[in-house]
């Protein structure tokens, strides 16, 4: 973990408590000499009311839970910093953190949306990507998601939407899933949701890692400069490791094998010094260009295609410190879209306007009163001086006679500032009071079509499979049919392919498709050529070639790839020939292929014989192959690939050979060529071997 110091870190230090070298006391500081037995009348008699220690201990325990977030309950967070590249944005905003180049402390919380606090990480869902910037001008919260649009246009529908996606009321089933009747009932009756539904059915909903996920502010916000001029802005986070996803079958299995998969990945990466990094980009639109688009900039179900308004990089964010305490920090952090600093303002996006109400309100119930901004993680590093007083959990001892404005008794303080204040953008507003959606919000299909058109064939196959899975779980046939009818208005081929899998009629083909594409929308269209951040399993048993493994692990490590040696049992592996014993990192039965990005079978006749007799090892290889992962073997390790049914051609010489993402060489031990690791790294950088045909592989 980083030893970087910053103002937030220093502030938190005042609140940290470490019990090393401490003795047990009550909350009142009275030393406790015995905490295992209650005070009773006789050793077999009733517990006495006067046992203040037992009562305090149990009472505190009884009150340890707070309400979980009504959405985004499950999350993981980390500290880090943001730094602007330069001051180019100063023409558009007075927000210093976007222009100063200084390192600004941040806390980021990633989350799933629908599941409860204890649900699995790898469900099909949107991911939250919320950043709190502790700036000198006050806290700024960018509370975004990993998808750039939302399901609804107006916040008044949010309770309806959330009620529909959450587990169904009679039995609280299913947990953290959209694959059920009420979700599809809702979206099929609210076509404005279709664009986002396309994103949700895409691989974006299955991130390989929080470190490999884009983030979006979603709404159009406004930057405001020193002259008070506004510029529309959309915020984008782009991960340095590239945007990568899991495969749906992997996700479902990981949910059982390691429900903390994404949390753990973030934690481990930071602990090991592989600090995740994102670039912040902005799309800027001049005020007088507001109506230059074929959609409304205030409509949160629309993107501004990057080909139309390019994303300009403005800074980078690095996460380099894990929290000390999940509850105190990750659970108690309170984001609020209305936490803005001078130079950033809202627009009239009706979804954003509702959020500006909701986030403050929800913290009051969740964190138990109006003083939650005093919790250590929420405290600004900017000075705070309000006339607000009292309330549950007040931590500040306010001195002085006055807590009102204007006062003379307190010397007029806190005084009204004349510099650096937040000034609301002075927008001209005129209109009749009316409960009606603007006609400019009424196109529900064009951008869903744009998204579909922009996908590669593989991405389209995944989208079709996702619709078939989700709608296949819907018991009401009319909901299935209604959804497919909407899909027909997005694209006929999409609708026909989905319909064929779920036993409903395809629509009549009258849909049409505008044919436009936005290549930036495709994840696979922008390959990331670095293997960094991936995890490789090396299968081994007693008798393995430990020299070969050591050199491979070292080469992978140099490329920031974590390689772990998995063996049938823990402890040291006896070497097959020359070489020293090698400690196994993990016991095979505690892990699974779905927790790795690739598998390597090491050489060693005895080792491979043992693995061939172990069904888990054979399955490990077959499953990794089925999930389109690079598979590699050296020396006698090739025999395990054959036993697992890997159908591709394997090496016949020591020259490393690659076919269908399978990297092999007959070389053993000290003769393992460097090119073997190099080929494996190239395959890892490709993430998955998308064109491998694995339909018939049983795993
Ligand atoms: Fe949220 N949302 N939201 N949301 N949201 C919450 O706030 C809400 C929306 C997002 O890690 C809640 O503190 C309404 C869009 C994230 O702590 C709550 C509407 C986007 C997080 C709430 C939306 C988001 C939340 C629940 C429609 C992406 C987790 C607990 C008007 C741009 C923040 C809490 C964290 C959390 C309300 C729509 C992102 C109830 C009413 C759009 C990342 O206030």
TrEMBL record:
Superkingdom, taxonomy of origin: Bacteria
* UniProt-annotated stretches for the region Disordered: 1-20, 505-529
Gene3D superfamilies for this protein? 1.20.1370.20, 3.40.50.880, Catalase core domain (2.40.180.10)
Q: Which residues does UniProt mark as catalytic?
A: 72, 145
GO biological-process terms attached to the record: hydrogen peroxide catabolic process; response to oxidative stress
Q: Which UniProt keywords apply?
A: Heme, Hydrogen peroxide, Iron, Metal-binding, Oxidoreductase, Peroxidase
The terms under GO molecular function for this entry are: catalase activity; heme binding; metal ion binding
Q: Where is the Catalase core domain?
A: 25-413
Q: Write one Pfam family the protein is assigned to.
A: Catalase
**Record-listed E.C. numbers:** 1.11.1.6
UniProt cross-references to CDD domains, sorted A to Z: catalase_clade_2, GATase1_catalase
Covalent cross-link 3'-histidyl-3-tyrosine (His-Tyr) as placed by the record, residue numbers: 336-359
Question: Where along this sequence does the record place binding of heme?
Answer: 69, 109, 158, 355, 359, 366
Instruction: Provide one Gene Ontology cellular component.
Output: cytosol
Q: Which InterPro entries does the entry mention?
A: Catalase, Catalase_AS, Catalase_clade2, Catalase_clade2_helical, Catalase_core, Catalase_haem_BS, Catalase_immune_responsive, Catalase_large_C
Keyword hit for Nucleus: no
Task: Write down the chemical reaction(s) this protein catalyses.
Answer: 2 H2O2 = O2 + 2 H2O
Question: Which cofactors does this gene product need?
Answer: heme
Q: Where is the composition biased (Polar residues)?
A: 520-529
Which family does the record assign? Belongs to the catalase family. HPII subfamily.
> In UniProt terms, what function does this protein have?
Decomposes hydrogen peroxide into water and oxygen; serves to protect cells from the toxic effects of hydrogen peroxide.
What protein name does the entry list? Catalase
Q: What is the scientific name of the source organism? A: Amycolatopsis suaedae
């Amino acid at each position: 973990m980083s030893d970087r110091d910053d103002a937030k870190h220093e502030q938190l230090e005042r609140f940290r408590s470490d019990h090393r070298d401490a003795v047990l006391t009550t909350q009142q500081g009275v030393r406790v000499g015995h905490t295992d037995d209650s005070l009773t009348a006789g050793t077999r008699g009733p517990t006495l009311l006067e046992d203040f220690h037992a009562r305090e201990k149990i009472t505190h325990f009884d009150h340890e839970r707070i309400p979980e977030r009504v959405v985004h309950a499950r999350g993981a967070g980390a500290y880090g910093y943001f730094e602007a590249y330069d001051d180019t944005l100063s023409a558009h905003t007075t927000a210093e953190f976007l222009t100063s180049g200084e390192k600004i402390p941040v806390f980021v919380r990633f989350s799933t949306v629908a599941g409860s606090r204890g649900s699995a990480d790898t469900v099909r869902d949107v991911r939250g990507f919320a950043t709190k910037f502790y700036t000198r001008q006050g806290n700024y919260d960018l509370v975004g998601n990993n998808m750039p649009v939302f399901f609804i246009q107006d916040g008044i529908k949010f309770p309806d939407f959330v009620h529909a996606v959450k587990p169904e009321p009679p039995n609280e089933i299913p947990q953290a899933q959209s694959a059920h009747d009420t979700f599809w009932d809702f979206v099929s009756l609210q076509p404005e949701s279709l664009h986002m539904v396309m994103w949700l059915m895409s691989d974006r909903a299955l991130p390989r890692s929080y470190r490999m996920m884009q983030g979006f502010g979603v709404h159009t916000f406004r930057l405001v400069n020193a002259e008070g001029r506004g510029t529309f802005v959309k915020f984008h986070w782009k991960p340095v490791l590239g945007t990568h996803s899991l495969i749906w079958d992997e996700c479902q299995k990981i949910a059982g094998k390691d429900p903390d998969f994404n949390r753990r990945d973030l934690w481990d990466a930071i602990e090991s010094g592989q600090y995740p990094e994102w670039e912040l980009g902005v799309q800027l639109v001049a005020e007088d260009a507001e109506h230059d688009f074929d959609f409304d900039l205030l409509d949160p179900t629309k993107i501004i295609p990057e080909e139309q308004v390019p994303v300009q990089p403005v800074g980078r964010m690095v996460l380099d410190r894990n929290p000390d305490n999940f509850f105190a920090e990750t659970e108690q952090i309170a984001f609020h879209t209305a936490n803005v600093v001078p130079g950033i303002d809202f627009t009239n996006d009706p979804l954003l306007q509702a959020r500006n109400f909701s986030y403050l309100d929800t913290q009051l119930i969740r964190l138990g009163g109006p003083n939650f901004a005093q919790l250590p993680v929420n405290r600004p590093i900017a000075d705070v001086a309000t006339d607000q007083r009292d309330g549950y959990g007040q931590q500040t001892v306010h001195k002085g006679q006055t807590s009102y404005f204007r006062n003379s008794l307190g010397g007029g303080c806190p005084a009204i500032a004349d510099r650096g204040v937040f000034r609301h953008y002075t927008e001209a507003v005129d209109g009749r009071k009316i409960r009606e959606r603007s006609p400019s919000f009424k196109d529900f299909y064009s951008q869903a079509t744009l998204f579909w058109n922009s996908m590669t064939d593989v991405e389209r196959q995944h989208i079709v499979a996702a619709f078939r899975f989700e709608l296949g779980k819907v018991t009401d046939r009319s909901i299935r049919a209604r959804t497919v009818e909407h899909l027909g208005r997005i694209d006929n081929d999409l609708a026909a392919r989905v319909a064929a899998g779920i036993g409903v009629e395809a629509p009549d083909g009258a849909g049409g498709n505008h044919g436009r594409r936005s290549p930036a929308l495709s994840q696979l269209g922008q390959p990331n050529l670095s293997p960094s951040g991936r995890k490789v399993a090396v299968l081994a048993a007693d008798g393995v070639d430990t020299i070969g493994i050591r050199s491979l692990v070292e080469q992978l490590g140099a490329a920031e790839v974590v390689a772990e040696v998995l063996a049938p049992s823990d402890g040291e592996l006896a070497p097959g020939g020359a070489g020293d014993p090698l400690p196994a990192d993990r016991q095979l039965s505690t892990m699974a292929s779905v927790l790795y990005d690739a598998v390597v079978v090491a050489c060693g006749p005895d080792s491979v014989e043992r693995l061939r007799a172990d069904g888990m090892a054979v399955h490990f290889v077959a499953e990794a192959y089925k999930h389109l992962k690079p598979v590699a073997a050296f020396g006698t390790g090739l025999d395990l690939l054959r036993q697992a049914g890997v159908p591709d051609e394997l090496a016949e010489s020591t020259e490393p050979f690659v076919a269908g993402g399978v990297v092999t060489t007959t070389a053993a031990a000290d003769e393992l060529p460097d090119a073997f690791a190099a080929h494996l790294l190239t395959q890892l950088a490709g993430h998955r071997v998308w064109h491998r045909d694995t339909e018939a592989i049983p795993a």
